[in-house]
Specification:
Shape: rod-shaped
CATH class: Mainly Alpha
Order of helices and strands: HH
Low-confidence stretches: none
Largest sheet: none
CATH architecture: Orthogonal Bundle
Structural class: mainly alpha
Number of strands: 0
Strand content: under 5%
Helix content: over 70%
Number of domains: 1
Distance between the termini: 25 Å
Length: 100
């Protein structure tokens, strides 16, 4: 059979992968605080430069991961809604067919 075949199990597997990715991104956000909170000896210019760089890098890492997580959340929502709508339409079509 040629053409599109909807695979609910395949969609659920993709959703599971996306949920795992979302959880991993949340863990990364919590790990970023180690960079954001880094401290070094005061009054040492090289140390201050490195700690400021680490803080900036950690903050950009956190922001980036939060934005990715937000994107993944929206994607999960849209994919779930699409799956549910497809299943609903399929069930309605089956009911119509059975009623003749």
């Amino acid at each position: 059979m040629a053409g599109f075949v909807f695979d609910p199990a395949g969609v659920e597997a993709v959703l599971e992968d996306l949920r795992k990715l979302r959880d991993d991104l949340l863990e990364d956000v919590s790990l970023a605080r180690y960079l954001v909170e880094v401290t070094g000896p005061r009054g040492v210019p090289a140390s201050e430069l490195m700690t400021n760089s680490a803080r900036f890098s950690g903050e950009m890492f956190r922001v980036h991961n939060e934005e990715l997580r937000s994107f993944v959340d929206r994607y999960i929502g849209k994919l779930t809604a699409s799956r549910d709508e497809y299943l609903r339409a399929d069930e309605n079509g089956r009911d119509e067919f059975e009623r003749g």
